[in-house]
Structures are given as C-alpha cells and as structure tokens.
C-alpha cells in the first residue's frame, strides 16, 4: 500500500505540520475537523507539500528526518524546490 509524507501549513498560526499516512485526503479532513488537539487551533490547514512512498515506514522515516531538522527554513526550501 502506498504511503505519503505530507506537510500542512496554517496561516492562522504561521506554522507547518509534518505527518505521514496511507490516505492523505482522510488525514487532511481529520486535521481540518479538529480531530487532533495539536492541529485544532490551526484550522484551516492547507496541504503544501507531499512525497509518495511504497511503504508507510519509508514515509515515517522521511517524516522523522524532516522533524529532526527543526528548521522552518529547511521546510520552506523543500516546498519551494518542489514547485
């Protein structure tokens, strides 16, 4: 089953959220319904970046790598390089 690494952006918070899933449409809807406490205050979340992987564990590894960078500049460079 294919998986996806995704980056969401909240204009309300001016923050990014990084996650991974096997169903990006469902996850985006969950974030925008306020299902997760962490993302509830940032609604609406916009999908600004994604990468497709063959396996969920690959998407999670990429998610953790990006999170370890702890850099908004790194995330914005990643997003702009894809556009």
Strand content: 25-35%
H-E order: EEHHEHH
What integer is the average pLDDT? 94
Overall geometric form: globular
Total domains: 1
Q: With helices defined by DSSP (H or I, 4 residues minimum), what is the helix count? A: 4
Q: Helicity level, as a percent range?
A: 40-55%
Distance between the termini: 26 Å
Radius of gyration: 12 Å
What's the CATH C level?
Alpha Beta
The description of the largest β-sheet is: 3 strands, antiparallel
CATH homologous superfamily assignment: GIY-YIG endonuclease
The counted number of beta strands is: 3
The CATH topology name reads GIY-YIG endonuclease
Notes on the structure:
- A hairpin with a 4-residue loop joins strand 1 and strand 2.
- The protein has helices at residues 24-33, 37-40, 56-69, 72-82, and strands at residues 3-10, 15-21, 45-53.
- It has one domain (3-82): GIY-YIG endonuclease, CATH 3.40.1440.10.
- By secondary structure, the chain is α+β, with helices and mostly antiparallel strands.
Topology:
Layout: E1 3-10, E2 15-21, H1 24-33, H2 37-40, E3 45-53, H3 56-69, H4 72-82
Antiparallel strand pairs: 1-2, 1-3
């Amino acid at each position: 089953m294919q998986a996806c690494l995704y980056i969401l952006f909240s204009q309300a918070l001016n923050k990014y959220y990084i996650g991974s899933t096997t169903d990006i449409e469902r996850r985006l809807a969950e974030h925008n319904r306020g299902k997760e406490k962490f993302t509830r205050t940032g609604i609406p979340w916009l999908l600004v970046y994604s990468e497709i992987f063959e396996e969920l564990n690959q998407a999670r590894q990429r998610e953790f790598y990006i999170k370890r960078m702890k850099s908004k500049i790194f995330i914005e460079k990643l997003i702009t390089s894809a556009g």
